[in-house]
Amino acid sequence: MAQTSDKPASVSTEDSAASFAYLISELSTSLINAAPDEAELHIERSLAALGSNDRKDRCYVFLFTDDYRHMTNTHEWVNRGISSHKDDLQNIPLEAMPWFFTSMRADGKVVVSCTDQLPDVTGGFKEELQREQIQSMLAVGMYLEGKLIGFVGCDLVQRSTLWSDEDVRQMQLVADMIANTIARHRTESQLHQVQSELRAANERLAQLAHEDSLTGLINRRGLDAVLETELRRTQRKQQFLSVLMVDIDHFKALNDKHGHLGGDAALCSVAGILLKTFQRSGEKVARFGGDEFVVICPVMSAEVAEQRATELLQAIASNTSVAPVTVSIGVLSFIPAADTTPGSVLRQVDRAVYEAKDKGRNCFVRRPFG
Ligand SMILES: Nc1nc2c(ncn2[C@@H]2O[C@H](COP(=O)(O)OP(=O)(O)OP(=O)(O)O)[C@@H](O)[C@H]2O)c(=O)[nH]1
To answer: Where are the coiled-coil regions (predicted)?
Structure first.
Protein backbone atom coordinates (compact mmCIF):
# COMPACT_ATOMS: atom_id res chain seq x y z
CA MET A 1 0.00 0.00 0.00
CA ALA A 2 1.26 3.45 -0.90
CA GLN A 3 -0.08 5.88 1.72
CA THR A 4 1.44 9.21 0.81
CA SER A 5 -0.41 12.15 2.33
CA ASP A 6 0.25 14.33 5.32
CA LYS A 7 -3.31 15.74 5.31
CA PRO A 8 -5.26 13.85 7.97
CA ALA A 9 -8.72 14.68 6.62
CA SER A 10 -10.76 11.57 5.85
CA VAL A 11 -14.02 12.35 3.99
CA SER A 12 -16.01 9.57 5.69
CA THR A 13 -18.49 10.23 8.48
CA GLU A 14 -20.58 7.78 10.48
CA ASP A 15 -23.76 8.97 8.76
CA SER A 16 -22.41 8.58 5.27
CA ALA A 17 -20.98 5.15 6.19
CA ALA A 18 -24.43 4.05 7.35
CA SER A 19 -26.21 5.34 4.26
CA PHE A 20 -23.54 3.76 2.06
CA ALA A 21 -23.99 0.41 3.81
CA TYR A 22 -27.73 0.69 3.17
CA LEU A 23 -27.13 1.48 -0.51
CA ILE A 24 -24.77 -1.47 -0.88
CA SER A 25 -27.26 -3.84 0.70
CA GLU A 26 -29.95 -2.60 -1.73
CA LEU A 27 -27.61 -3.08 -4.69
CA SER A 28 -26.69 -6.58 -3.51
CA THR A 29 -30.36 -7.52 -3.31
CA SER A 30 -31.04 -6.13 -6.77
CA LEU A 31 -28.04 -8.10 -8.09
CA ILE A 32 -29.49 -11.33 -6.75
CA ASN A 33 -32.82 -10.58 -8.44
CA ALA A 34 -31.34 -9.08 -11.64
CA ALA A 35 -32.10 -10.57 -15.05
CA PRO A 36 -29.04 -11.99 -16.88
CA ASP A 37 -28.84 -9.04 -19.28
CA GLU A 38 -28.84 -6.43 -16.50
CA ALA A 39 -25.19 -6.89 -15.51
CA GLU A 40 -24.00 -3.70 -17.23
CA LEU A 41 -26.72 -1.62 -15.62
CA HIS A 42 -25.88 -3.11 -12.25
CA ILE A 43 -22.19 -2.22 -12.53
CA GLU A 44 -23.06 1.33 -13.57
CA ARG A 45 -25.41 1.70 -10.61
CA SER A 46 -22.76 0.43 -8.22
CA LEU A 47 -20.21 2.93 -9.52
CA ALA A 48 -22.74 5.76 -9.22
CA ALA A 49 -23.42 4.72 -5.61
CA LEU A 50 -19.70 4.69 -4.87
CA GLY A 51 -19.24 8.07 -6.57
CA SER A 52 -22.07 9.84 -4.81
CA ASN A 53 -20.77 8.67 -1.44
CA ASP A 54 -18.41 11.45 -0.22
CA ARG A 55 -18.50 13.27 -3.59
CA LYS A 56 -15.89 11.45 -5.58
CA ASP A 57 -14.99 12.84 -8.99
CA ARG A 58 -14.57 9.68 -11.03
CA CYS A 59 -15.21 5.99 -10.34
CA TYR A 60 -14.28 3.18 -12.68
CA VAL A 61 -13.73 -0.47 -13.39
CA PHE A 62 -10.65 -1.78 -15.19
CA LEU A 63 -10.24 -5.35 -16.37
CA PHE A 64 -6.91 -7.06 -17.05
CA THR A 65 -6.41 -9.36 -20.01
CA ASP A 66 -5.86 -13.00 -18.99
CA ASP A 67 -2.11 -12.70 -19.72
CA TYR A 68 -1.81 -9.48 -17.63
CA ARG A 69 -0.32 -7.60 -20.56
CA HIS A 70 -3.07 -4.99 -20.94
CA MET A 71 -5.91 -3.41 -19.03
CA THR A 72 -9.05 -1.66 -20.22
CA ASN A 73 -11.37 0.85 -18.57
CA THR A 74 -14.70 -0.97 -19.06
CA HIS A 75 -17.04 1.18 -16.95
CA GLU A 76 -16.83 4.74 -15.69
CA TRP A 77 -18.91 7.18 -13.65
CA VAL A 78 -17.93 10.86 -13.62
CA ASN A 79 -19.19 13.66 -11.45
CA ARG A 80 -20.68 16.78 -13.06
CA GLY A 81 -17.98 18.99 -14.61
CA ILE A 82 -15.31 16.24 -14.51
CA SER A 83 -13.85 14.99 -17.79
CA SER A 84 -14.17 11.35 -18.79
CA HIS A 85 -11.03 9.35 -19.63
CA LYS A 86 -12.59 6.02 -20.51
CA ASP A 87 -12.04 6.34 -24.25
CA ASP A 88 -8.30 6.95 -23.95
CA LEU A 89 -7.81 4.18 -21.37
CA GLN A 90 -8.50 1.19 -23.63
CA ASN A 91 -6.01 -1.67 -23.98
CA ILE A 92 -3.29 0.07 -21.94
CA PRO A 93 -0.02 -1.94 -21.74
CA LEU A 94 0.67 -2.80 -18.07
CA GLU A 95 4.41 -2.54 -18.66
CA ALA A 96 3.90 1.24 -18.91
CA MET A 97 2.94 1.26 -15.18
CA PRO A 98 4.93 -1.55 -13.51
CA TRP A 99 4.76 -0.04 -10.02
CA PHE A 100 0.96 0.18 -10.09
CA PHE A 101 0.53 -3.39 -11.26
CA THR A 102 3.10 -4.83 -8.84
CA SER A 103 1.45 -3.03 -5.89
CA MET A 104 -2.02 -4.16 -6.94
CA ARG A 105 -0.90 -7.79 -7.20
CA ALA A 106 1.01 -7.69 -3.91
CA ASP A 107 -1.46 -5.71 -1.73
CA GLY A 108 -4.78 -6.02 -3.57
CA LYS A 109 -5.05 -2.24 -3.50
CA VAL A 110 -3.30 1.00 -4.46
CA VAL A 111 -3.85 3.99 -2.21
CA VAL A 112 -2.62 7.44 -3.26
CA SER A 113 -3.53 10.31 -1.00
CA CYS A 114 -1.40 12.92 -2.76
CA THR A 115 -0.11 12.40 -6.29
CA ASP A 116 2.69 14.95 -5.95
CA GLN A 117 4.13 13.00 -3.01
CA LEU A 118 4.38 9.73 -4.90
CA PRO A 119 8.03 8.57 -4.96
CA ASP A 120 9.90 8.55 -8.29
CA VAL A 121 9.85 4.74 -8.42
CA THR A 122 6.18 4.89 -9.37
CA GLY A 123 7.38 6.10 -12.80
CA GLY A 124 4.74 6.17 -15.53
CA PHE A 125 1.93 5.80 -13.01
CA LYS A 126 2.65 9.17 -11.38
CA GLU A 127 2.89 10.82 -14.79
CA GLU A 128 -0.45 9.31 -15.81
CA LEU A 129 -2.15 10.63 -12.65
CA GLN A 130 -0.66 14.06 -13.31
CA ARG A 131 -1.78 13.95 -16.95
CA GLU A 132 -5.34 13.31 -15.73
CA GLN A 133 -4.91 15.99 -13.02
CA ILE A 134 -5.73 13.46 -10.29
CA GLN A 135 -4.79 14.55 -6.77
CA SER A 136 -5.86 11.39 -4.87
CA MET A 137 -6.90 7.94 -5.99
CA LEU A 138 -7.88 4.64 -4.46
CA ALA A 139 -8.12 1.31 -6.29
CA VAL A 140 -9.06 -2.12 -4.92
CA GLY A 141 -8.58 -5.44 -6.71
CA MET A 142 -11.39 -7.61 -8.05
CA TYR A 143 -10.90 -11.38 -7.84
CA LEU A 144 -12.57 -14.35 -9.53
CA GLU A 145 -11.79 -17.72 -7.97
CA GLY A 146 -8.72 -16.19 -6.34
CA LYS A 147 -7.39 -14.65 -9.56
CA LEU A 148 -6.97 -10.89 -9.85
CA ILE A 149 -9.11 -9.88 -12.86
CA GLY A 150 -9.08 -6.09 -12.51
CA PHE A 151 -9.86 -3.35 -10.06
CA VAL A 152 -12.44 -0.79 -9.01
CA GLY A 153 -11.14 2.67 -8.29
CA CYS A 154 -11.97 6.29 -7.78
CA ASP A 155 -10.21 9.61 -8.35
CA LEU A 156 -10.34 12.98 -6.70
CA VAL A 157 -9.48 15.81 -9.07
CA GLN A 158 -10.65 18.85 -7.18
CA ARG A 159 -9.10 18.01 -3.78
CA SER A 160 -6.91 15.44 -2.11
CA THR A 161 -7.73 13.30 0.88
CA LEU A 162 -6.21 10.90 3.34
CA TRP A 163 -8.04 7.66 2.63
CA SER A 164 -9.28 5.86 5.74
CA ASP A 165 -9.57 2.12 6.37
CA GLU A 166 -13.33 2.61 6.07
CA ASP A 167 -12.89 4.09 2.57
CA VAL A 168 -10.88 1.03 1.57
CA ARG A 169 -13.45 -1.31 3.12
CA GLN A 170 -16.33 0.36 1.27
CA MET A 171 -14.43 0.19 -1.99
CA GLN A 172 -13.73 -3.49 -1.32
CA LEU A 173 -17.46 -4.13 -0.89
CA VAL A 174 -18.20 -2.53 -4.25
CA ALA A 175 -15.27 -4.39 -5.89
CA ASP A 176 -16.56 -7.74 -4.55
CA MET A 177 -20.06 -6.98 -5.72
CA ILE A 178 -18.93 -5.99 -9.22
CA ALA A 179 -16.65 -9.06 -9.40
CA ASN A 180 -19.68 -11.21 -8.54
CA THR A 181 -21.72 -9.47 -11.21
CA ILE A 182 -18.97 -10.07 -13.79
CA ALA A 183 -18.62 -13.72 -12.70
CA ARG A 184 -22.34 -14.29 -13.06
CA HIS A 185 -22.43 -12.52 -16.43
CA ARG A 186 -19.50 -14.61 -17.73
CA THR A 187 -21.04 -17.87 -16.51
CA GLU A 188 -24.34 -16.99 -18.16
CA SER A 189 -22.64 -16.00 -21.45
CA GLN A 190 -20.67 -19.26 -21.44
CA LEU A 191 -23.87 -21.17 -20.73
CA HIS A 192 -25.64 -19.40 -23.60
CA GLN A 193 -22.77 -20.16 -25.93
CA VAL A 194 -22.69 -23.85 -24.95
CA GLN A 195 -26.47 -24.01 -25.34
CA SER A 196 -26.42 -22.47 -28.82
CA GLU A 197 -23.52 -24.75 -29.87
CA LEU A 198 -25.49 -27.75 -28.60
CA ARG A 199 -28.59 -26.60 -30.43
CA ALA A 200 -26.61 -26.19 -33.69
CA ALA A 201 -24.98 -29.62 -33.21
CA ASN A 202 -28.38 -31.24 -32.58
CA GLU A 203 -29.88 -29.56 -35.64
CA ARG A 204 -26.93 -30.78 -37.73
CA LEU A 205 -27.29 -34.31 -36.32
CA ALA A 206 -31.00 -34.33 -37.09
CA GLN A 207 -30.23 -33.08 -40.59
CA LEU A 208 -27.51 -35.73 -41.07
CA ALA A 209 -29.90 -38.44 -39.91
CA HIS A 210 -32.17 -37.45 -42.80
CA GLU A 211 -29.49 -36.75 -45.41
CA ASP A 212 -27.95 -39.07 -48.00
CA SER A 213 -24.19 -38.79 -47.58
CA LEU A 214 -23.36 -39.24 -51.29
CA THR A 215 -25.84 -36.88 -52.96
CA GLY A 216 -26.91 -34.65 -50.07
CA LEU A 217 -30.55 -35.43 -50.91
CA ILE A 218 -33.13 -36.52 -48.32
CA ASN A 219 -32.40 -40.17 -47.44
CA ARG A 220 -34.82 -43.07 -47.04
CA ARG A 221 -35.61 -42.22 -43.42
CA GLY A 222 -36.25 -38.57 -44.32
CA LEU A 223 -38.40 -39.62 -47.26
CA ASP A 224 -40.77 -41.58 -45.01
CA ALA A 225 -41.20 -38.55 -42.75
CA VAL A 226 -41.74 -36.10 -45.65
CA LEU A 227 -44.18 -38.44 -47.41
CA GLU A 228 -46.16 -38.96 -44.22
CA THR A 229 -46.43 -35.18 -43.71
CA GLU A 230 -47.50 -34.52 -47.30
CA LEU A 231 -50.01 -37.41 -47.28
CA ARG A 232 -51.69 -36.00 -44.20
CA ARG A 233 -51.63 -32.41 -45.47
CA THR A 234 -53.09 -33.19 -48.93
CA GLN A 235 -55.61 -35.63 -47.43
CA ARG A 236 -56.81 -32.91 -45.03
CA LYS A 237 -57.17 -30.39 -47.86
CA GLN A 238 -58.37 -33.01 -50.38
CA GLN A 239 -55.67 -31.99 -52.87
CA PHE A 240 -53.74 -34.04 -55.43
CA LEU A 241 -50.35 -35.45 -54.51
CA SER A 242 -48.01 -36.72 -57.24
CA VAL A 243 -45.15 -39.09 -56.47
CA LEU A 244 -42.48 -40.03 -59.02
CA MET A 245 -40.00 -42.87 -58.64
CA VAL A 246 -36.95 -42.55 -60.88
CA ASP A 247 -34.65 -45.56 -61.50
CA ILE A 248 -31.47 -45.35 -63.59
CA ASP A 249 -31.43 -47.80 -66.52
CA HIS A 250 -28.70 -50.46 -66.62
CA PHE A 251 -26.84 -48.82 -63.82
CA LYS A 252 -24.98 -52.03 -63.04
CA ALA A 253 -23.46 -51.92 -66.54
CA LEU A 254 -22.46 -48.26 -66.01
CA ASN A 255 -20.78 -49.25 -62.74
CA ASP A 256 -18.97 -52.11 -64.48
CA LYS A 257 -17.76 -49.85 -67.28
CA HIS A 258 -16.81 -46.72 -65.30
CA GLY A 259 -16.06 -48.23 -61.90
CA HIS A 260 -17.84 -47.56 -58.62
CA LEU A 261 -16.56 -43.97 -58.47
CA GLY A 262 -17.84 -43.32 -61.99
CA GLY A 263 -21.17 -44.78 -60.85
CA ASP A 264 -21.17 -42.43 -57.83
CA ALA A 265 -20.54 -39.44 -60.09
CA ALA A 266 -23.47 -40.48 -62.31
CA LEU A 267 -25.73 -40.76 -59.23
CA CYS A 268 -24.72 -37.24 -58.16
CA SER A 269 -25.28 -35.92 -61.67
CA VAL A 270 -28.81 -37.40 -61.80
CA ALA A 271 -29.48 -36.02 -58.30
CA GLY A 272 -28.44 -32.55 -59.53
CA ILE A 273 -30.80 -32.74 -62.55
CA LEU A 274 -33.65 -33.87 -60.29
CA LEU A 275 -33.09 -30.95 -57.93
CA LYS A 276 -32.99 -28.53 -60.84
CA THR A 277 -36.15 -29.97 -62.41
CA PHE A 278 -38.14 -30.11 -59.17
CA GLN A 279 -37.43 -26.90 -57.31
CA ARG A 280 -40.91 -25.41 -57.14
CA SER A 281 -42.34 -24.67 -53.72
CA GLY A 282 -43.03 -27.84 -51.72
CA GLU A 283 -41.32 -30.21 -54.19
CA LYS A 284 -38.91 -32.64 -52.48
CA VAL A 285 -36.30 -34.97 -53.98
CA ALA A 286 -35.03 -38.02 -52.05
CA ARG A 287 -32.66 -40.90 -52.72
CA PHE A 288 -34.71 -44.04 -52.12
CA GLY A 289 -31.64 -46.29 -52.26
CA GLY A 290 -29.09 -47.59 -54.83
CA ASP A 291 -29.94 -46.02 -58.18
CA GLU A 292 -33.53 -45.11 -57.24
CA PHE A 293 -34.89 -41.65 -56.43
CA VAL A 294 -38.31 -40.43 -55.32
CA VAL A 295 -39.84 -37.01 -56.00
CA ILE A 296 -42.80 -35.75 -53.97
CA CYS A 297 -44.93 -33.03 -55.55
CA PRO A 298 -47.80 -31.74 -53.42
CA VAL A 299 -50.79 -30.16 -55.17
CA MET A 300 -49.80 -31.55 -58.61
CA SER A 301 -52.37 -33.08 -60.96
CA ALA A 302 -51.75 -36.23 -63.06
CA GLU A 303 -51.53 -34.14 -66.22
CA VAL A 304 -48.82 -31.84 -64.83
CA ALA A 305 -46.98 -34.85 -63.32
CA GLU A 306 -46.80 -36.49 -66.77
CA GLN A 307 -45.54 -33.24 -68.29
CA ARG A 308 -42.81 -32.95 -65.64
CA ALA A 309 -41.85 -36.64 -66.11
CA THR A 310 -41.38 -35.99 -69.85
CA GLU A 311 -39.20 -32.92 -69.10
CA LEU A 312 -37.10 -35.02 -66.72
CA LEU A 313 -36.57 -37.83 -69.27
CA GLN A 314 -35.29 -35.24 -71.76
CA ALA A 315 -33.06 -33.45 -69.26
CA ILE A 316 -31.39 -36.72 -68.17
CA ALA A 317 -31.03 -38.16 -71.68
CA SER A 318 -29.41 -34.98 -72.95
CA ASN A 319 -26.88 -34.85 -70.07
CA THR A 320 -23.65 -36.68 -70.82
CA SER A 321 -21.43 -35.15 -68.12
CA VAL A 322 -20.37 -38.56 -66.72
CA ALA A 323 -21.75 -41.06 -69.23
CA PRO A 324 -24.94 -41.32 -71.28
CA VAL A 325 -27.71 -42.23 -68.86
CA THR A 326 -31.47 -42.79 -69.16
CA VAL A 327 -34.07 -43.42 -66.48
CA SER A 328 -37.39 -45.22 -66.08
CA ILE A 329 -40.07 -43.34 -64.14
CA GLY A 330 -43.14 -44.49 -62.24
CA VAL A 331 -45.82 -41.87 -61.59
CA LEU A 332 -48.72 -41.87 -59.10
CA SER A 333 -51.17 -38.95 -58.84
CA PHE A 334 -53.98 -39.20 -56.31
CA ILE A 335 -55.90 -37.59 -53.49
CA PRO A 336 -54.79 -39.51 -50.37
CA ALA A 337 -57.33 -41.23 -48.13
CA ALA A 338 -57.11 -41.22 -44.32
CA ASP A 339 -55.56 -44.70 -44.32
CA THR A 340 -53.02 -44.13 -47.13
CA THR A 341 -49.52 -44.91 -45.82
CA PRO A 342 -46.07 -44.05 -47.19
CA GLY A 343 -45.41 -47.80 -47.56
CA SER A 344 -48.45 -48.37 -49.80
CA VAL A 345 -47.55 -45.34 -51.97
CA LEU A 346 -43.94 -46.48 -52.43
CA ARG A 347 -45.00 -50.05 -53.27
CA GLN A 348 -47.40 -48.87 -55.94
CA VAL A 349 -45.05 -46.33 -57.53
CA ASP A 350 -42.34 -49.04 -57.55
CA ARG A 351 -44.72 -51.24 -59.56
CA ALA A 352 -45.10 -48.40 -62.10
CA VAL A 353 -41.29 -48.28 -62.45
CA TYR A 354 -41.21 -52.00 -63.25
CA GLU A 355 -43.83 -51.46 -65.92
CA ALA A 356 -41.70 -48.67 -67.44
CA LYS A 357 -38.69 -51.04 -67.47
CA ASP A 358 -40.86 -53.67 -69.19
CA LYS A 359 -41.93 -51.11 -71.75
CA GLY A 360 -38.29 -50.74 -72.82
CA ARG A 361 -36.91 -48.12 -70.32
CA ASN A 362 -36.26 -44.37 -70.91
CA CYS A 363 -40.00 -43.74 -70.43
CA PHE A 364 -42.58 -43.20 -67.70
CA VAL A 365 -45.68 -45.14 -66.66
CA ARG A 366 -48.47 -43.60 -64.60
CA ARG A 367 -50.60 -46.01 -62.61
CA PRO A 368 -53.91 -45.25 -60.97
CA PHE A 369 -53.69 -45.41 -57.18
CA GLY A 370 -55.43 -48.21 -55.34
N1 LIG B 1 -21.64 -46.63 -57.74
C2 LIG B 1 -22.63 -47.00 -56.95
N3 LIG B 1 -23.38 -48.09 -57.26
C4 LIG B 1 -24.40 -48.45 -56.47
C5 LIG B 1 -24.70 -47.73 -55.33
N6 LIG B 1 -25.78 -48.30 -54.71
C7 LIG B 1 -26.13 -49.33 -55.48
N8 LIG B 1 -25.31 -49.43 -56.56
C9 LIG B 1 -25.34 -50.39 -57.67
O10 LIG B 1 -26.45 -50.07 -58.50
C11 LIG B 1 -26.76 -51.21 -59.24
C12 LIG B 1 -28.24 -51.28 -59.39
O13 LIG B 1 -28.48 -52.22 -60.36
P14 LIG B 1 -29.85 -52.96 -60.52
O15 LIG B 1 -30.87 -52.33 -59.62
O16 LIG B 1 -29.62 -54.42 -60.36
O17 LIG B 1 -30.32 -52.73 -61.97
P18 LIG B 1 -29.77 -51.92 -63.19
O19 LIG B 1 -28.44 -52.42 -63.59
O20 LIG B 1 -29.86 -50.46 -62.94
O21 LIG B 1 -30.78 -52.34 -64.30
P22 LIG B 1 -32.28 -51.85 -64.47
O23 LIG B 1 -32.70 -51.17 -63.20
O24 LIG B 1 -33.06 -53.09 -64.70
O25 LIG B 1 -32.25 -50.96 -65.62
C26 LIG B 1 -26.12 -52.41 -58.50
O27 LIG B 1 -25.05 -52.90 -59.27
C28 LIG B 1 -25.59 -51.78 -57.20
O29 LIG B 1 -24.36 -52.39 -56.81
C30 LIG B 1 -23.89 -46.59 -54.98
O31 LIG B 1 -24.07 -45.89 -53.98
N32 LIG B 1 -22.88 -46.28 -55.83
So the answer is: 184-211
